[in-house]
Design goal:
homodimer; alpha/beta; Aspartate Aminotransferase, domain 1; eight-stranded mixed beta sheet
Chain lengths: ~400, ~400
């Protein structure tokens, strides 16, 4: 057998992967999955959409589509993104196989081996894996309750002035659960404006706010005309329709778009036309707003139940920021604690979550844990939290 | 804006792409598309499948699935591939976003910049683009009516003894339309057995044979126990259900499988669970054999109509091999002819096809043309062929 490529030789199965197999064990309370609960999917809406499809549209769903995306979906998405203030008309939109593919393509277009990519710490595990698959050196910059810490980002950029891009998830961050404050967004704007760096703005959770007064904070940085030309904005249907559709998008400046399209073409030619037809009709038939309202209510209620249980049971050494949207609570423990010990005890006693090091691009820092409330049945949240709290107490 | 990566800088939009936009013009007879006609898709079968889905299965379709594939689909595919003689139990199966992703992943796992990959000439345009996206040096080895020419392949391998793999499409080749003969398959077997090279065996068209007596020739090389450990076998639902499902697969030796799974995970996490549920039930409910029988009949009839028209109208300088299955006829012209001239005249007069250089990994040789009969309405085949034949006569 021939030798593996450099890139393949660096690919490693994560040591926590075996533990994560427990996440699927129905006997355990799982806070591990960063996904909606199966019962929340809009199956009735999609049944209606499917039943309404004229035969010609259905046939198109079986066929190849343009690499950039199924044209009616690009139209519907354009309308949807324009309403969020995004510069759809001066940029180019491309449909991708989940937003992970949009992130992967960004790495493919910009990263040579050993190039630096700046990320938050913690950061989305899938993005870190995509960057590493192009042999990027992903440097994680610490966050606080308001977003990435300005001095830390400035320092990281001074150390890595040739960094290819900055990857941020400013709205209900995975795993940190943080919504960037107005001040922190202003800092990022200034940082992007003054430096020769691309911002990769990842926005899968922005619609899932729990408080109407936060809506202004969820307006993407990409909506700002002063910096939009330096931002690749990516989003996803995974949290607002279903991950199984495998549909995301990138809205990028026209000067870099041709490379995105060529890269995507070589990856999978086009995303599923079948699911693009369904998503396009889901939007066109006006089913998204009602579904989103329902999701916000359910996730808000679950977050509340979880936080109430945490306030009752967690030791005072554990700290967290109350999520204002999205799927996650990020618990920070004293640095001496290894979250892997907490996880092992927790699994023995009936609950599972993801340890912090999974979200460190270097796979080192491990005194944190991510609890997702998106996927956990509401009547088991309190029990699960108690198990995790007990395991934390033991590890302390 | 930061600099593009090496790989992105080498990505080029093909000069023939603009001409190919004509392929979608309904006023032209199109022999360009390597896809089924929209009217051939099994929409009724999939309507029945969709209507039969229990709610739990439907919900799973909205959810993330394992990177390796939706388990019931892996089971159904395993049964299907085992029946073709493939070593499903000693190898590992992975579902991919079209077989193009399986080909792309093979390149990602083995290719470093400037590594050589041996292909046929002509070869599948999508595979060549995927190889080039990893900066491979794809070397196209000439074919004749029986497959790749032994002396040519031996010579290419002597020149490039470190070639990472050999990419072949032995069953109803795209674009050459060729089915490998028994002798040629024996040669490939010996070549693979004696050399330190991986065979990437691409089999999207093998089911679409026109003559039952050819079935033994369509048995994959991967079914041979003496060499199966050196073969990555890839296939697709695109031609036997619909490309819009974006589902393919790879069956690979267990020693290379972990890298395939990690590479796929970083690309798009998993393929669409929604279309995997449909494909899985399409197989489980026994709908494939009847659909295949219908496809074989339709494509055979179209090929016959096309060849009859060609025999009547083509000048004697044009030569071709009569297809015994699949979608394509490959027409070879004297070397002095530039197929681009033929294409331009042809488009002016109302027919479009793909020029030969699209299938040359180096983009040079251009005295050939590919006519697909898979997508062309039967009542327009003869007219279209006459237009192409006239354009060839003018170019001569």
């Amino acid at each position: 057998m021939p030798e593996f490529s450099q890139s393949a030789r660096r690919m490693r199965t994560s040591e926590i992967r075996d533990l994560m197999k427990h996440a699927a064990n129905p006997a355990l309370v799982s806070f591990a999955g960063g996904m909606p609960n199966n019962e929340l999917f809009p199956t009735d809406d999609i049944d209606e959409v499917y039943a309404s499809l004229p035969i010609e549209l259905k046939r198109q769903g079986f066929q190849y589509g343009p690499t950039a995306g199924f044209p009616p979906l690009l139209d519907e998405l354009g309308t949807y993104l324009r309403a969020k203030g995004l510069p759809v008309d001066s940029n180019k939109l491309i449909v991708t196989t989940g937003s992970l593919q949009a992130i992967n393509v960004t790495a493919k277009v910009f990263v040579d081996p050993d190039d630096v990519v700046l990320t938050e710490y913690p950061t989305f595990i899938g993005a870190a894996a995509a960057f590493q698959s192009y042999q990027a050196n992903a440097v994680g910059t610490p966050m606080d309750a308001d977003g990435v810490v300005p001095e830390e980002l400035e320092r990281a950029y001074r150390e890595h002035p040739n960094a290819k891009f900055l990857y941020l998830t400013p709205y209900f961050h995975n795993p940190a659960g943080v919504l960037y404050s107005a001040e922190r967004k202003a800092f990022v704007k200034e940082f992007v404006a003054k430096n020769d760096i691309l911002l990769l703005e990842d926005d899968p959770y922005g619609e899932l706010y729990f408080h109407d007064e936060d809506v202004p904070l969820t307006v993407p940085l990409k909506a700002d005309p002063e910096i939009e030309g330096k931002i690749a904005y990516v989003g996803s249907f995974s949290k607002i329709l279903g991950p199984g559709m495998r549909l995301g998008w990138a809205l990028v400046p026209p000067d870099i778009y041709p490379k995105y399209e060529l890269a995507k073409q070589s990856l999978d030619a086009c995303s599923s036309t079948f699911t693009q037809v369904l998503a396009s009709e889901f939007l066109r038939q006006g089913k998204l707003p009602g579904y989103l309202a329902r999701l916000r209510e359910v996730y808000h209620r679950r977050m509340r139940a979880m936080l109430d249980a945490m306030n009752e049971t967690m030791p005072e050494e554990a700290s967290w920021v109350e999520p204002r949207g999205g799927f996650y609570v990020w618990i920070e423990l004293p640095e001496r604690v290894d979250a892997l010990d907490v996880l092992k005890t927790s699994i023995e006693n009936g609950a599972v979550f993801v340890v912090g090091k999974a979200f460190d691009p270097k796979g080192e820092r491990n005194n944190c844990l991510r609890l997702a409330y998106s996927h956990t049945p509401e009547d088991r949240l309190a029990d699960g939290v108690r198990i995790v709290a007990d395991a934390i107490k033991r590890a302390l």
